[in-house]
Each structure stands twice: as C-alpha cells, then as structure tokens.
C-alpha cells in the first residue's frame, strides 16, 4: 500500500448540463478533501457552472478548451441543450475533436486520476498510455449499467430487436423489474439506426466502462445492493458508489436572482406541499400531442402546478404556442407555465412544492427525492425508462400509464397519477417511502462515509508513474 497524498484529479464530463452539474458537485466534494481538481470543459459550459465557493477556489482550476467548429453545428453550440436531435451526433464528433487539446493538457499537467464520462470512449486508452489512473463516473444507476451489460463488443450482444430490451437480460439472476417499454426501446433503436456516422452511444459507453480502472456510480449500496453485487461480477473491476451527491441550494442561484424572486413570490402564495413542479430536464423534446395531453391532464387534476417549459433547441417558435387553446387562461391563478431556464433546486426546496412530475433524469430524481417531493414518473428517453421502473418498484413514484406500443397516453391518465401522488394515496405509502428516501439521501454521515472511502481509494490505488 502506498502512502496517501494530495492528488491532482482531472474531471472531463460530457457536454450536457445533466453531466456537468454532478461532475462539478463531485469536484467540490473532492476538493473539500484537499485534492486539487482540474475541471475541463468548453468556455460556454464553464461559464454556466455554479460559482466556486471561496474556500475551494484555490483547489479547483477551470480548464477551458474551445470546441472545434464544424459546418454541421451552430457556431455557438456547446452542449446538448443548444442543439436539435439531428445535431446530437455532430456535437459528439466536435467533442471527439477535443482530443489533441486534452492530450496537451494531460501531458503538461500529469494528473494522478482522470474522472471521465461515457462519451469520450477514446480517453481511457490514451490516459493509460500517459500513466494516468482512469475512473469512469456513471450517472446511470447500478441497475441500469447491469441491464446494459458487461461487453464492449456489442456485436456479441444477442439483443437486437426492440422486444429484446423489454425483458431482463439473461445475466440477471434475480427477479427484475428493470426493462424498457416497447415504445421507449423502439425510439432508442430508431435513433441508433438514424446516424451511423460515428460510434453509437452504447458503443461509447461500453468502451468507457471496459477500459476504466474503476467505475464510480452516483448511487448507494443501500438503494440497490443486488445490482451493485451483480455489476461487480459482470465487470470484474472495482465498482464504487459515491453516494447520491445531494444538491446544495446555494449553488443554484442567489436569493436576489430576479427570476427566482418572481417564482418565489408565486410559490409563497400557495399552500404548503400543494404544488406539483413539472419539468423535463434539458434534453427531452415533447411532441405537440404529448404537450396537449400533459396540459389537459394538469388542468383535470385540479392541482396547483409550476410547469417549466423550455423551447425546442433552435426552434423559432415558443413552446407556449403549442399548448391547447385557452389553457393558460383557464388555469390562471392555479397553474404557472414558465418559459426558460428555472432554478430547479431552489423551486424543489420551496415548502409549497409537494410533488414533481419528472422525466426521470437521474439529477432530477435525486433533487426531487432529496427534498421529499413525491415523484410522478414520465420517462422520455435514454436511461429514464429503467429509472422509472426502479423507482416505482421501490414505491418511490407513480408512473403515468402509456400505450405500450406507441407511447400515447390520455390526459385522464396524467390527472389520475397526479392525484394519486398528491392527494389520493390511501395509506400514504408513497409519501412515507419518499420521506425515508429523503432521509437516506440527506444522511450526512452516510454521504461522508461514501466520499471518504472513495477519496481513500483514489489516494491509495493511483498508478505509480516513473
Ligand atoms: N435544470 C435546471 N433548470 C432547468 C432545467 C434543468 O436547473 O430549467 C437542471 C436540473 O436541476 C438538473 C439538470 O439540469 O440538475 C438536468 O439533469 P437531469 O438528469 O434531470 O436531466 P437531463 O437534462 O440530463 O435529461
């Protein structure tokens, strides 16, 4: 065993807010342990990060690498939020083109570890050649990673049809409710087929996992013990939970932020625990039909709501125009539709919010549960379907019913789920389970334990260079 020492850790997240935020949060926590962090991203993404707290400013170095421009990308696009569906793959290609600049940085600054994300499949090999230890930081749950499976050579994966993904894979030895619904997996497979100009997300992901020295997961053993055990067997390498990394309200926006002041005034007028916060993260784009049914469902639920509705990237039309005729007038006073970037953590922390209608992005799930908000699950893409199954299985949310084949749904089903979560839960089971989970996520000793074990592991197991 080597002596422990202060480490230099490079962090390299994928270009998406849902990845930059937890990578940044982990950076802060590792810096609090005295380690030096180089947080590497592109200029605009770096400018969107929360302010570094003054006691950590000498330990966290923000490294800005300009994103190479490409004719198939808008000139100001630097994250998934800035591009439409067809531009997602070009954004990945631009990200891949950061490789030479990243190599220069790694060669000159020789970090002990690099903590990286699923998209940079080319990174672990080159980091290995430079003698840098490699940690893949998964923002997917252990259940989701185990569902995807162990092999980098996905050609060997016998699953090829959408139906194959609607059941548990054969390497799961216990009863499992982690699977995709048919409509979710059809969309997923269509996307892979659509653009073959580069490696698919699954290939990027599998190589990133396989060539890592360790896998770190934003979850905890108590939450998904079976899946952690299985994943260790499948991957045959250390799989380290880092805890849930609960959000801190101060890093969202200041109390005097003008957007927050307006939102807070509205929330202050509502009854405690009465409001449903509705938001679908930074990436999902909903169809007009989906928006209509959701809107009518919110209306029929008769519950107060605060709905964050972002415009589609690059669209010249406001999403508000796609809402059903007369909707905003009919719900006036009871429901507010907010068009833009919302201070989500601050909203969720407000006492009048009781429930969260979410797309089940893992950040949103952790944020909602960490304030004890009952979840209404409306998964759209990526890992969100399996996340919804995992949560519903643990009675940590109620999933809105959808047609299995085409994903269509009716406003009545939305209203039903909302009322079940907020008022009609007969034995308050959802509420009790949610509050238990809130305590688990907020448990300071447990979080400190996970982080301490991670930091010790990184200190002791770093590669010895030279
Ligand atoms: N977010 C926010 N305001 C918004 C939209 C998103 O603060 O208007 C934050 C949200 O709090 C979360 C992240 O962006 O931390 C979105 O991550 P998530 O995993 O929930 O969804 P994704 O966008 O990755 O699908």
TrEMBL record:
Keywords: Glycosyltransferase, Transferase. SUPFAM superfamilies: UDP-Glycosyltransferase/glycogen phosphorylase. Pfam families: UDPGT (PF00201). CDD domains: GT1_Gtf-like. GO terms for molecular function: UDP-glucosyltransferase activity. InterPro entries: UDP-glycosyltransf_plant (IPR050481), UDP_glucos_trans (IPR002213). PANTHER family: GLYCOSYLTRANSFERASE (PTHR48049), UDP-GLYCOSYLTRANSFERASE 91C1 (PTHR48049:SF138). Belongs to the UDP-glycosyltransferase family. This is Uncharacterized protein.
């Amino acid at each position: 065993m080597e002596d422990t020492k202060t480490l230099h850790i490079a962090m390299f997240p994928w270009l998406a807010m849902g990845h930059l935020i937890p990578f940044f949060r982990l950076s802060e926590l590792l810096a609090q342990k005295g380690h030096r962090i180089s947080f590497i991203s592109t200029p605009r993404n770096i400018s969107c990060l929360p302010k570094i707290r003054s006691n950590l400013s000498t330990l966290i170095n923000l490294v800005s690498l300009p994103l190479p421009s490409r004719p198939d990308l808008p000139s100001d696009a630097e994250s998934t939020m800035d591009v439409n569906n067809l531009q997602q793959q070009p954004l990945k290609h631009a990200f891949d083109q950061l490789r030479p600049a990243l190599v220069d940085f790694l060669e000159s600054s020789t970090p002990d570890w690099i903590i990286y994300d699923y998209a940079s499949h080319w990174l672990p090999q080159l980091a290995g050649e430079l003698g840098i230890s490699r940690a893949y930081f998964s923002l997917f749950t252990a259940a989701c990673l185990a569902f995807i499976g162990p092999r980098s050579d996905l050609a060997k994966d016998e699953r090829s049809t959408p139906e194959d993904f609607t059941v548990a894979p054969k390497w799961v030895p216990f009863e499992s409710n982690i699977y995709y619904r048919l409509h979710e997996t059809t969309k997923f497979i269509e996307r892979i087929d659509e653009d073959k100009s580069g490696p698919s997300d699954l290939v990027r992901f599998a190589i990133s996992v396989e060539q890592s020295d360790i896998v770190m997961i934003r979850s905890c053993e108590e939450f998904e013990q079976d899946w952690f055990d299985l994943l260790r067997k499948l991957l045959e390498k250390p799989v380290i939970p880092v805890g849930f990394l609960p959000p801190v309200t101060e890093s969202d926006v200041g109390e005097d932020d003008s957007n927050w002041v307006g939102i807070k005034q509205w929330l202050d007028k509502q009854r405690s625990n009465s409001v449903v916060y509705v938001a679908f993260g930074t990436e999902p784009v909903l169809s007009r039909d989906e928006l209509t049914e959701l809107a009518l469902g919110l209306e029929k639920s008769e519950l107060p709501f605060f709905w964050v509705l972002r415009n589609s990237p690059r669209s010249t039309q406001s999403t508000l125009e796609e809402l059903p005729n007369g909707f905003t007038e009919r719900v006036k006073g009871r429901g507010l539709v907010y068009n833009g970037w919302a201070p989500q953590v601050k909203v969720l922390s407000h006492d009048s919010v009781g429930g969260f209608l979410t797309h089940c992005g893992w950040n949103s799930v952790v944020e909602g549960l960490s304030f004890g908000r009952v979840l209404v699950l409306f998964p759209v893409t990526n890992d969100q379907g399996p996340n919804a199954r995992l949560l519903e299985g643990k009675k940590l949310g109620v999933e809105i019913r959808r047609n299995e084949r085409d994903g269509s749904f009716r406003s009545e089903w939305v209203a039903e789920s909302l009322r079940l979560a907020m008022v009609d839960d007969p034995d308050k089971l959802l509420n009790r389970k949610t509050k238990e989970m809130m305590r688990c996520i907020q448990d300071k000793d447990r979080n400190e334990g996970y982080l301490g074990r991670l930091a010790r592991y990184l200190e002791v197991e770093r590669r010895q260079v030279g």
